[in-house]
Structure to design on (363 residues):
């Protein structure tokens, strides 16, 4: 598995004419080697080379063996990271492009730039190499995403069943931790959101001690982690009754969600999928209240590189997994969001979430 992933990265490097790539992102290192190194302020990086003479530069604090990551390791001293960067620089061909992957602290990058030959060395950000490889999920990854999403369907249902008990938003999320544990999830994939009434008009509301009131919308946006993969789903309910205006808001978001999902297939751009949802919400008169992109990529991390937005003109590829989550947020009044995860298939997509989306009044 890891050999195949590494080969896929090397193929992308060749296509993009990047002869060497420095990778420091812990999750990308884990994806390529199966070894997680949370290095923090210490040095840990892979250098991938087109000639396959890869090497890892790792602080000696981490007891990692070459057999674990499949390439030679050079250990550096904890008290002299400057020397470590000099060693890293020596492993690079300074007359070739030096591609750097993802977020790397200025402390490390600037230090490396000082160690190379400034007259010939050229750096370029090339996160899209590993991002694009990670964005095409294998069959094993797809199954893990199905499994964790099934659990999330169950978790949403169990939280919805608790609403009549009139728990605070915070108490609801505390219950969720126990639910995920019972389902065999190792934790949450992001800080869960339970938002009552006007609180739901903030898409990233921080849960508080609010109690649900008659007529409130109830946004439940949650995700767990199982076998290293993340789930993410949102459902919106109403408590005891729903006004005609709020019913219209809900039905508008639901139709936008369905239209965007129906648009998904290989060759369609993510901007076109975003437009399918956004244009309908605008047509219905709520355009100013749809304040975020339509979706994001997901996998080992809840938010991976790639999104469903008007700015993303890349085409959908088979194996992409991403969210479709249009919403309407009217300040001081109501919030509605409906989110599903989909896998792009040869002729459309597979929806990973099966919990019902039709309007439901609880209590």
């Amino acid at each position: 598995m890891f050999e195949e992933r590494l080969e896929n990265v090397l193929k992308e490097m060749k296509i993009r004419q990047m002869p060497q790539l420095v990778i420091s992102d812990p999750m990308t290192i884990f994806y390529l080697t199966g070894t997680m190194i949370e290095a923090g302020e210490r040095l840990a990086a892979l250098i991938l080379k087109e000639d396959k003479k890869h090497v890892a530069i790792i602080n000696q604090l981490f007891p990692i063996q070459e057999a674990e990551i499949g390439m030679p390791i050079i250990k550096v001293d904890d008290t002299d990271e400057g020397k470590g960067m000099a060693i890293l620089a020596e492993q690079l061909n300074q007359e070739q492009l030096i591609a750097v992957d993802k977020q790397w602290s200025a402390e490390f990058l600037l230090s490396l730039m000082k160690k190379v030959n400034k007259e010939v060395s050229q750096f370029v950000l090339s996160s899209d190499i590993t991002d694009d490889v990670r964005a095409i999920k294998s069959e094993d990854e797809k199954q893990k995403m199905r499994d964790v999403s099934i659990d999330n369907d169950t978790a949403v249902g169990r939280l919805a069943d608790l609403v009549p008990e009139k728990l605070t938003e915070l108490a609801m999320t505390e219950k969720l931790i126990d639910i995920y544990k019972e389902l065999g999830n190792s934790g949450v994939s992001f800080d869960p959101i339970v938002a009552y009434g006007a609180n739901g008009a903030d898409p990233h509301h921080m849960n508080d001690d609010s109690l649900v009131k008659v007529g409130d919308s109830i946004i439940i946006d949650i995700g767990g982690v199982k076998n290293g993969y993340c789930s993410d789903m949102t459902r919106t309910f109403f408590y005891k009754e729903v006004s005609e205006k709020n019913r219209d808001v809900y039905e508008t978001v639901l139709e936008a969600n369905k239209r965007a999902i129906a648009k998904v297939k290989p060759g369609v751009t993510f901007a076109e999928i975003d437009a399918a949802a956004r244009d309908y919400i605008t047509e219905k008169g709520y355009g100013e209240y749809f304040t975020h992109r339509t979706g994001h990529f997901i996998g080992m991390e809840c938010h991976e590189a790639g999104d469903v937005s008007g700015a993303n003109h890349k085409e959908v590829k088979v194996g992409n997994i991403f969210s479709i989550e249009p919403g309407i947020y009217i300040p001081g009044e109501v919030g509605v969001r409906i989110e599903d995860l989909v896998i792009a298939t040869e002729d459309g997509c597979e929806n990973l979430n099966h919990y019902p989306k039709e309007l439901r009044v609880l209590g």
Remarks:
- Residues 139-162 form the longest helix (24 residues).
- The chain has ten helices and 20 strands.
